[in-house]
Amino acid sequence: MVAAPSGAGKTSLVRALMKRVPDLRFSISYTTRRQRETEKHEHDYFFVTREQFQQRIDAGDFLEHAQVFDNFYGTSRSQVQGILDSGHNVLLEIDWQGARQIRRAMPQSQSIFILPPSRAELERRLRDRKTDSDEVIARRLRDSIADMSHWNEFDYVVVNDDFERAVNDLQAIVEDRGDAFRATRSELQTLVRSLLG
């Protein structure tokens, strides 16, 4: 599981990681979020209505689901199990709420949280997307701080201060060489204090 606050670079990092680690398979989430111009249905997400999402909840189809901002996201239980049954590792791009649910359902899973190097950099990345209004960006920043407060619930933490290094760190973790990136390492404390302020 890979989680991060909005703007930390999670999606770009996950895409780069998938290219490097051939054994990984990506679990495509369901969402009620509006599809962006650059996204493809059934490739980036399964874009569904709120009604369709609720039907899947009622049927027990989700391994986890959560509301993030004004939208819902969920992971298909059957999709994940099918990938595992085929002998591959599954990568879930998820939020901290979903990660909690996955840990309960699949305690053997490993979790990674991605932190930005600073609040200023987080805001710059959100603005550079050019997809949200100032009001939405301000709300995303507030929500990101709340999200980051859950960093210590994860097994590993990667700081995305340099993209290539962060991808290397993620690769080390998924290849069982990630002890240096454990969430318990002391050098994270100063960064976390500055991010949570």
Feature tags:
globular, 197 residues, 3-stranded parallel β-sheet, Rossmann fold, single chain, alpha/beta, 8 helices
Description:
It is an enzyme of class 2 (transferase). It catalyses: GMP + ATP = GDP + ADP. Its main location: cytoplasm. InterPro entries: GK/Ca_channel_bsu (IPR008145), Guanylate_kin-like_dom (IPR008144), Guanylate_kinase (IPR017665), P-loop_NTPase (IPR027417). The protein has 197 residues and is an alpha/beta fold. The chain has a single domain, classed as P-loop containing nucleotide triphosphate hydrolases (Rossmann fold, 3-Layer(aba) Sandwich), CATH 3.40.50. It is built from eight helices and nine strands. It has helices at 10-20, 50-58, 77-85, 96-105, 119-128, 134-148, 163-174, 188-196; strands at residues 2-3, 24-26, 30-31, 46-47, 62-68, 71-76, 89-91, 112-115, 156-159. It has a four-stranded mixed sheet with strand order 4-3-6-5. A hairpin with a 2-residue loop joins strand 5 and strand 6 (71-76). The longest helix has 15 residues, at 134-148. It is globular, with a radius of gyration of 16 Å.
Question: Would you tell me which CATH topology applies?
Answer: Rossmann fold
Biggest beta sheet attributes:
4 strands, mixed
The tally of strands reads 9
What is the level-2 CATH architecture name?
3-Layer(aba) Sandwich
| Total domains | 1
Rg over CA atoms: 16 Å
Give the spatial strand order of the biggest sheet.
4-3-6-5
* Series of secondary-structure elements, N-terminal to C-terminal: EHEEEHEEHEHEHHEHH
Shape: globular
The N- to C-terminal Cα distance equals 26 Å
CATH first level: Alpha Beta
Beta fraction: 15-25%
Structural class by sheet pairing and helices: alpha/beta
